[in-house]
């Protein structure tokens, strides 16, 4: 059985003089240098050998490791990149990146297979650019990152255009139209060209991609093409966060960029973006964008709603545009982005008398009169790579509206969700990019939690959430994994992977605005996590219902030794977990200790004490980081 204990903050000490503070800083620096020297010796000066993997029993992104030294890991990454000799530029060298993007922008290659290979390489470079943690370096590479993302999207447009130019040569015998699906690890491209222009057209289904769409009759007889490009990555939400940083809204709530205790995502610099917009280089880059012959149809102008010309005037309701903007702290886009576009069909290849005629000039629906028509519809099967704990919300990308470059939930109607088939359908007032949203903290607050030792430098951390229970195993040695589980990753990568998959148990300094919590003194709480991590190899810690009733200055949890039952605590409480009312009275005969670790150490057997003293510092750091990132004493 567990034993209930209470943790209380220490009394504030007297003021520390400047000399004492300087001495402490020097001691901390010397200790850090000694530890780094030991780490370098263990890793033979080149590659880190000790990792702390994190294994999730419930989901596919289970494993993580904490590197012994971040700088040393960067050296390993640079060395591996150098040894590949694949001609790829070094993302850390801006000159190489600029040269790479200029050459790729001028590359006339439009074959979809080769373009997707080039895009995959660019996405790898993009991930390396996002790993920059230095704020000054982040501002430096921000412009390069945005330009690279725009170039990837432009290449998708060029490859799409090339396919549509030969649409008449790939006509389906059943429908008389061109329909194709192209997939790789990062994107799914669904294309449909309206060659038949049948008035009986209803919808098109891309069964292998889990996508379908509907068009109004006015567009069904037009010379158009429809593209649904599903990217499993999200280039738009980062732009929305940067846009929000440089704008001020009349709302009292603060919506900063998404950030966790160990950095769930990189915060972009608003100042750098403003300088980019105002600089002549930005104008030049906009002009130098790759030109395409496809022109996006604006359904708002092509398909205006039908109105009764003699009816009474409509009453207009004033809606605050800010209220319709998606708060990316409250909601998280899952499953990537779906680009839902309509284009004027490019000139098709014509054959006559053995000759092949290709029109080189621009062609399309120039001068087409506006026609009244209803909304456009789309259906999406939820991606298998993410978990939706609740019915997903649909948000559209506002690229040039009132809320420039933001996700919005207005303009989406007739939403229906079929949970049995995991399919969501809706209608929109225009062709725009859209994403599926889920509340970031849908799985919080925790119903219970437990940190249980599994042996030396090994522990099992379990949280029972509102919708899903998750177990994470922390151990000091790497092991083999099946291809269904995933790959080894750092603590920050583990958090990002879980959040992107819809399984979020991590919180930040703003989480209390969106989920109920138990107010606790932060210094006492984080001191408890530090001391729990030190003894996690030998002691089990668990949730207590009394923690929510003991006040902000106290923490209550259940503790059980892995080797011998604890009988005396820092403050062993007289009450039990099954008691009827909370009482702060301590257990008769128990002693009061100044810190948590003193009480545990004084009551443990020699074997238990030896196990805690032999704990690897990386294992302790990993456990502490995981506890601080989830804060179970506050959010349960």
The percentage of residues in β strands lies in 15-25%
How far apart the termini lie comes to 21 Å
Largest sheet: 7 strands, antiparallel
Task: Give the fraction of residues assigned to helices.
Answer: 25-40%
Number of distinct beta strands? 23
Uncertain runs: 39-68, 248-319, 363-372, 478-486, 562-569
Which structural category do the helix and sheet elements fall into? alpha+beta
Lateral arrangement of strands in the main beta sheet: 1-23-22-19-20-21-2
Question: How many individual helices?
Answer: 15
Mean pLDDT: 75
Please tell me what the overall shape is: elongated
Account of the 3D structure:
The protein is of the alpha+beta class. Among the domains are: 76-154, no CATH class; 170-243 and 324-348 and 371-439, Chondroitinase Ac, Chain A, domain 3 (Sandwich), CATH 2.60.220; 448-477 and 489-630, no CATH class. Helix content is 30%, strand content 20%. It is built from 15 helices and 23 strands. Strands 1-23-22-19-20-21-2 form a seven-stranded antiparallel sheet. Strands 3-4-7-9-18-14-15 form a seven-stranded antiparallel sheet. The chain has a five-stranded antiparallel sheet with strand order 5-6-13-17-16, with no helix packed on it. The model is unreliable at 39-68, 248-319, 363-372, 478-486 and 562-569 (pLDDT under 50).
């Amino acid at each position: 059985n567990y034993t209930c204990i209470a943790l209380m903050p220490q009394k504030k000490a007297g003021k520390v003089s400047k000399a004492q503070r300087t001495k402490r800083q020097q001691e901390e620096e010397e200790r850090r240098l000694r530890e780094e020297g030991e780490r370098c010796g263990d890793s033979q000066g080149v590659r880190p050998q000790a990792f702390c993997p994190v294994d999730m029993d419930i989901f596919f992104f289970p494993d993580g490791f904490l590197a012994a030294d971040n700088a040393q890991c960067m050296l390993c990454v640079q060395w591996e990149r150098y040894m590949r000799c694949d001609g790829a530029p070094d993302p850390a060298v801006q000159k190489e990146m600029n040269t790479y993007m200029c050459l790729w922008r001028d590359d006339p290659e439009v074959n979809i297979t080769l373009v997707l290979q080039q895009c995959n390489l660019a996405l790898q470079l993009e991930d390396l650019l996002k790993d920059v943690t230095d704020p000054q370096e982040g501002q430096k590479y921000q412009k390069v990152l945005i330009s690279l993302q725009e170039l990837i999207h432009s290449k998708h447009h060029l490859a799409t255009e090339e396919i549509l130019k030969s649409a008449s040569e790939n006509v389906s015998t059943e429908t008389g139209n061109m329909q194709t699906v192209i997939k790789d690890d990062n994107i799914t491209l669904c294309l449909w060209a309206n060659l038949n222009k049948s008035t009986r057209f209803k919808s098109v289904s891309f069964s292998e991609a889990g996508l379908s769409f509907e068009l109004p009759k006015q567009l069904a007889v037009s010379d158009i093409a429809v593209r649904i490009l599903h990217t499993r990555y999200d280039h738009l939400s980062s732009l929305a966060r940067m846009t929000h940083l440089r704008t001020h809204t009349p709302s009292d709530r603060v919506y900063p960029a998404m950030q966790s205790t160990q950095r769930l995502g990189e915060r972009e610099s608003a100042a750098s973006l403003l300088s980019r917009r105002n600089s002549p280089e930005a104008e030049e880059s906009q002009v130098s964008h790759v030109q395409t012959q496809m022109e996006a149809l604006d359904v708002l102008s092509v398909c205006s709603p039908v109105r009764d010309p003699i009816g009474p005037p409509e009453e207009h309701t004033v809606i605050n545009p800010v209220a319709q903007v998606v708060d990316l702290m409250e909601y998280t886009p899952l499953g990537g982005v779906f680009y839902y576009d309509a284009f004027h069909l490019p000139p098709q290849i014509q054959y006559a008398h053995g000759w092949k005629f290709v029109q080189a000039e621009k062609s399309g629906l120039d001068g087409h009169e506006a026609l009244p028509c209803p909304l456009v519809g789309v259906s999406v099967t939820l991606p298998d790579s993410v978990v939706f704990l609740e019915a997903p919300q649909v948000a559209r990308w506002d690229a040039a509206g009132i809320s420039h470059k933001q996700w919005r939930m207005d303009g989406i109607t007739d939403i229906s969700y079929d949970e049995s088939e995991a399919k969501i359908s809706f209608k929109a007032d225009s062709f725009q990019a859209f994403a599926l949203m889920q509340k970031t903290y849908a799985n919080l607050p925790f119903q219970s939690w437990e940190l249980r030792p599994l042996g030396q430098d090994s522990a099992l951390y379990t949280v029972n959430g509102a919708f899903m229970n998750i177990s994470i195993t922390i151990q000091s040695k790497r092991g083999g994994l099946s291809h269904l589980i995933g790959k080894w990753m750092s603590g920050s990568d583990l958090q990002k992977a879980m959040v992107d998959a819809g399984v979020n148990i991590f919180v930040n300094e703003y989480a209390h605005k969106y989920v109920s919590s138990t107010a606790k003194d932060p210094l006492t709480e984080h001191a408890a996590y530090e001391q729990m991590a030190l003894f996690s190899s030998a002691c089990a810690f668990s949730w207590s219902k009394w923690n929510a009733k003991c006040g902000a200055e106290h923490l209550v949890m259940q503790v059980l030794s892995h080797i011998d039952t604890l009988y005396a605590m820092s403050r062993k409480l007289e009450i039990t977990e099954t008691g009827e009312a909370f009482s702060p009275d301590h257990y008769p005969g128990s002693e009061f200790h100044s810190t948590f670790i003193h009480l545990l150490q004084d009551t443990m057997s020699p074997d238990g004490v030896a196990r805690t003293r032999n704990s690897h510092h990386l294992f302790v750091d990993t456990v502490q980081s995981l506890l601080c990132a989830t804060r179970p004493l506050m959010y349960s």
